[in-house]
Amino acid sequence: MLLTAHVLLLTGCALPGQTQDPALCPPVEESWNAFAADPATANREAFEAALDALKYESSTSTAVDAARSAKHALQSTLARKPVRNPSFWNALDLIARECAEAGVDLSFDGHGEPLPAVG
Hints:
The protein has helices at 2-11, 25-37, 41-52, 61-76, 86-101. The chain is mostly helical. The model is unreliable at 1-14 (pLDDT under 50).
């Protein structure tokens, strides 16, 4: 029993959410850039679906939590006029960092600007 505990301490546990699947990164960038260019409902839904695809089984826990935060920030600030939301951009920055560590660089159009008006 003691030996098992030491082995676990030395080797760690392979928990889900520790490796970012690089294939999930481009859809986040592409769908955001489409929504930023045209904030139609279909584009917003595609972006939300790309965020929802970041799951613990295929993404780092940081990316998953940031995706949830970005989706919440987006939904809570949807308005008929552009709205500033630093939390949204912070979340996308975290996703970009996790994707960069997986070998995929992301660039989000309108970075830091107010979220697009919808409706």
